[in-house]
Design brief:
It contains two helices and two strands; from the N terminus they run αββα. The protein has a single domain (5-57), classed as Head-to-tail joining protein W (Head-to-tail joining protein W, gpW). A two-stranded antiparallel sheet has the order 1-2. By secondary structure, it is α+β, with helices and mostly antiparallel strands. InterPro entries: GpW (IPR004174), GpW_sf (IPR036626). This is Phage tail protein. It holds the Pfam family gpW.
Length: 68
């Protein structure tokens, strides 16, 4: 059984970063495994792929990017 706490935390941060980009932020910083990554609106697809990866690790459907 995997420890879900860290992937869930990363997923929440990635979702929030995507939300910020979609609501007009020009850049959003995101920390991943000790590495800081800054996403811009041109990186939206890359951020969505990261969210899908995390959802897969957690056994979640990748249909929704946000907690709905």
């Amino acid at each position: 059984m995997i420890n879900r706490a860290l992937p869930e935390q990363r997923l929440a941060q990635a979702r929030e970063a995507l939300r910020k980009l979609l609501t007009g932020a020009s850049t959003v910083p995101l920390s991943n495994q000790g590495e800081s990554i800054t996403y811009s609106s041109t990186d939206e697809a890359r951020l969505r792929n990261y969210i899908r990866k995390l959802q897969g690790e957690l056994g979640m459907s990748s249909v929704s990017f946000f907690n709905e």
